Amino acid sequence: MRPSYAAILFDVDGTLVDSRAATERTWRTWAQSYGLDPAHVLRICHGRRTEDTVAALLPPPERTRAMERLDAQEIRDLTDIVPMPGAQRLLGRLRDFPWALVTSCTAPLLRARMSAAHIPLPDVVVTADDVRDGKPDPTGYLLAADALGVRAADCLVIEDAPAGIEAGLRAGATVLAITTTHDASDLRAAHVIAPSLDWVTVAHGPDGVVVGLRQPFEPRRTR
């Protein structure tokens, strides 16, 4: 990793907020209502915009209504929404430092989940509503960096999913991945991998925020 960063850009679901149980309940119910294989739907929905996942599964005439149903169901189901381990501690240390959110959620869903997890929203937020193309397209991260007045190349992106990692890399940022929703073998493209935000340390340096790990982490290799 670099000695310091101008800003930190966070993904939300699976990174700052643990929404996996609620997300999988909603998508499983939705998939069954359309006669789709829930296991297949769950394999492709994490880390992507609802719009992009639905487009991969349904013909155009059915997509708008399907997305409306999903959004409504996800906003209603906030059971089990909690902060990811280490999220509140890490954000508390960044109180006087630039950071932003770049999420595949819609704006209403983001507000609902962040409120349920008791995590405040930063000044800069980029949601699915703000971009034409979702992750792995880098636009979200580029927009967030620009809104903070810094270069994406000077930012650290923290992600949990392959699509988000690719988005951060394509934006030119350094990417730290956490193994909260995917095996480390799926996250190898990231510059650094850690088990969770509990492992991540931040401190103010003369040229930005200094980010490190509490101890070295060597992901177990899978055959």
Features of the shown structure:
223 residues; alpha/beta; 2 domains; six-stranded parallel β-sheet; two-stranded antiparallel ribbon; 10 strands
Descriptive notes:
The protein is an alpha/beta fold. The protein folds into 2 domains: 4-18 and 82-213, 3-Layer(aba) Sandwich (Rossmann fold), CATH 3.40.50.1000; 19-76. It contains 8 helices and 10 strands. Helix 1 (20-33) packs antiparallel against helix 4 and helix 3 packs across helix 4. The longest helix has 17 residues, at 60-76.
Q: In which order are the strands of the major sheet placed?
A: 5-4-1-6-7-8
Whole-number radius of gyration?
17 Å
The number of domains: 2
Indicate the proportion of strand residues: 15-25%
Question: What's the CATH H-level superfamily name of the largest domain?
Answer: HAD superfamily/HAD-like
Stretches with pLDDT under 50, minimum 5 residues: none
The oligomeric state of the chains shown is single chain
CA-to-CA gap between the ends? 27 Å
The total count of strands amounts to 10
Order of helices and strands: EEHHHHEHEHEHEHEEEE
- Principal-axes shape call: globular
- Derived structural class: alpha/beta
Determine the CATH topology of the largest domain. Rossmann fold
CATH architecture of the largest domain: 3-Layer(aba) Sandwich
**Tell me about the biggest sheet?**
6 strands, parallel
- Specify the number of helices: 8
Protein name: HAD-IA family hydrolase
GO molecular function, one term: sugar-phosphatase activity
Keywords: Hydrolase
Pfam families: Hydrolase
